[in-house]
């Protein structure tokens, strides 16, 4: 009898974490490495949020809380959904978990049975397919091409739906591409979903506040209220509020689903960190001006990276609508050989040679379900980004 679960053979370790870990190890060994793999803001959590956490500690708010969130935070989340998304939820329709990842995992674990299919637009966040597999479901990938700016079409969605489809996972702006769906583009998708009442919508809105230019964020239940009763709208404080390590995610949805997710959480982690919950409460209810400041900073970095990468031979880098990622296409580099003698057979070989020969760490596109590409997280300083792009250009110039 094998000791380890057979499930492990079907699940891959996170490639983004692997790249970040390798970059850190090379730095510790003395290498000059610029890490562009981590999906987290490089600036600190706002001071008022940190102060709220300190007050919570001083006031003894360090005990167990309700399994899926303190009442005050749930009330604040209800207010956020109503003000920013036009969605009305009661506190018993809200769940708070240990990061957005746990929210998604709880939802899938609470609902998926063997044979259930979950539609995942690709390129996708690396964890989506593996969480579906862990929950016993079957991931069904639908690929958004470079020509369509990495977004899927209504016809593609329609063709992917079967009687076994249980969920459609929607992420806009996207990790890894930064692509965002306009109101009209999302309405075309929700029109398809209206025709298939067995399909639920899991909307990952984690990058809601990080949108650029004139792009307007929207979420499925907002665009099509008829889908409200079968939509789980998920979000969190990690990205917009620079609180990745605090591990607070949340969602609003139908009472019976929220209750089922609470049951899963009660037998896994129980409540999220009490101090982090009070910090998140301050984040949602305190001053919001820094969101505008940070958005402008990220837009400047996006423009810098896109402009520089598009000067690299063999690379095409679309301008994304949001998040803090770009997803360059490297079709023009495939089949060539690097200055260090490495044959660039695919995007994983490209990323590996780039790190070895230039010290720039990126995540290869196959990890996100679309090749040949790589993901750059521009959540680091302008100086580091400019130097990294110069090294990438030099690497591409050297391909023969």
Automatic annotation (TrEMBL):
UniProt EC number: 2.6.1.-
GO molecular function: transaminase activity
InterPro entries, per database record: Aminotransferase_I/II_large, AspAT/PAT-like, NHTrfase_class1_PyrdxlP-BS, PyrdxlP-dep_Trfase, PyrdxlP-dep_Trfase_major, PyrdxlP-dep_Trfase_small
Pfam families reported in the protein's UniProt record: Aminotran_1_2 (PF00155)
SUPFAM superfamilies: PLP-dependent transferases
Reactions catalysed according to its record: L-aspartate + 2-oxoglutarate = oxaloacetate + L-glutamate
Domain Aminotransferase class I/classII large: start-end pairs: 32-392
This protein's UniProt keywords: Aminotransferase, Pyridoxal phosphate, Transferase
Essential cofactor(s): pyridoxal 5'-phosphate
The UniProt record lists the keyword Transport: no
Domain of life: Bacteria
Database matches in PANTHER family: ASPARTATE AMINOTRANSFERASE
Record family assignment: Belongs to the class-I pyridoxal-phosphate-dependent aminotransferase family.
Name of the protein described by the UniProt record: Aminotransferase
């Amino acid at each position: 009898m094998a000791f380890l679960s057979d499930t492990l053979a079907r699940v891959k370790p996170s490639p983004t974490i692997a790249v970040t870990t390798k970059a850190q190890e090379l730095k510790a060994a003395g290498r000059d490495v610029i890490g562009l793999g981590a999906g987290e803001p490089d600036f600190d959590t706002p001071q008022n949020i940190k102060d709220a956490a300190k007050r919570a500690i001083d006031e003894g708010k360090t005990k167990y809380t309700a399994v899926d969130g303190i009442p005050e935070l749930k009330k604040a989340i209800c207010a956020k959904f109503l003000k920013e998304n036009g969605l009305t939820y009661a506190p018993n329709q809200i769940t708070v978990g240990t990061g957005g990842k746990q929210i998604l995992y709880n939802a899938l674990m609470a609902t998926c049975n063997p044979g259930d299919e979950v539609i995942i637009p690709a390129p996708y966040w690396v964890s989506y397919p593996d969480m579906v597999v862990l929950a016993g479901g079957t991931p069904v990938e639908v690929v958004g091409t470079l020509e369509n700016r990495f977004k899927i079409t209504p016809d593609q969605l329609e063709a992917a739906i079967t009687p076994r489809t249980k969920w459609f996972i929607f992420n806009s702006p996207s990790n890894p591409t930064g692509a965002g769906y306009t109101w009209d583009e999302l309405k075309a998708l929700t029109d398809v979903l209206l025709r298939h009442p067995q399909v639920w919508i899991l909307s990952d809105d984690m990058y809601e506040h990080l949108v650029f230019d004139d792009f307007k964020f929207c979420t499925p239940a907002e665009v099509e209220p008829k889908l409200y009763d079968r939509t789980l709208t998920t979000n969190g404080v990690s990205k917009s509020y620079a609180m990745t390590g605090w591990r607070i995610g949340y969602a609003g949805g139908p009472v019976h689903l929220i209750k089922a997710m609470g049951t899963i959480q009660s037998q896994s982690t129980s409540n999220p960190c009490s101090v982090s919950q009070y910090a998140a409460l301050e984040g949602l209810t305190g001053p919001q001006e820094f969101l505008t400041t940070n958005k402008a900073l990220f837009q400047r970095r996006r423009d810098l990276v896109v402009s520089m990468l598009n000067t690299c031979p063999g690379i095409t880098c679309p301008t994304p609508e949001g998040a803090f990622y770009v997803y360059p296409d490297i079709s023009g580099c495939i089949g060539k050989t690097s200055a260090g003698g490495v044959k660039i057979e695919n995007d994983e070989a490209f990323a590996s040679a780039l790190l070895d020969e230039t010290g720039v760490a990126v995540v290869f596109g196959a990890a996100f379900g679309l090749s040949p590409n790589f993901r750059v997280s521009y959540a680091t300083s302008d100086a580091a980004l400019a130097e990294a792009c110069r090294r990438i250009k030099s690497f591409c110039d050297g391909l023969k």
